[in-house]
């Protein structure tokens, strides 16, 4: 489902309520904004690994979720 929003004069865009609810975004939550190819990517900022909470610098995003290398390796061992 795509929802169209217009950019205002200072570059702001409103994230639709449905998307904020789906992601659990609250007022003043930090967001990471990046550019990939021709797309602007907005992600809820992850403070660390969603499994163990480690604020490891070796974080990868799996399905949009931050996961540390140690947890990825642990999951591979289980599989």
What can you see in these coordinates?
The protein folds into two domains: 1-45, Pemi-like Protein 1, Chain: D (Ribbon); 47-79, no CATH class. The protein contains two helices and four strands; from the N terminus they run αββββα. The protein has helices at 17-23, 69-78; strands spanning 31-36, 39-44, 59-62, 65-68. The strands form two sheets. The chain has a two-stranded antiparallel ribbon with strand order 1-2. Strands 3-4 form a two-stranded antiparallel sheet. A hairpin with a 2-residue loop joins strand 1 and strand 2 (39-44). The longest helix has 10 residues, at 69-78. The protein is elongated. The mean pLDDT is 88.
Task: List the SSEs and their pairings.
Elements: H1 17-23, E1 31-36, E2 39-44, E3 59-62, E4 65-68, H2 69-78
Antiparallel strand pairs: 1-2, 3-4
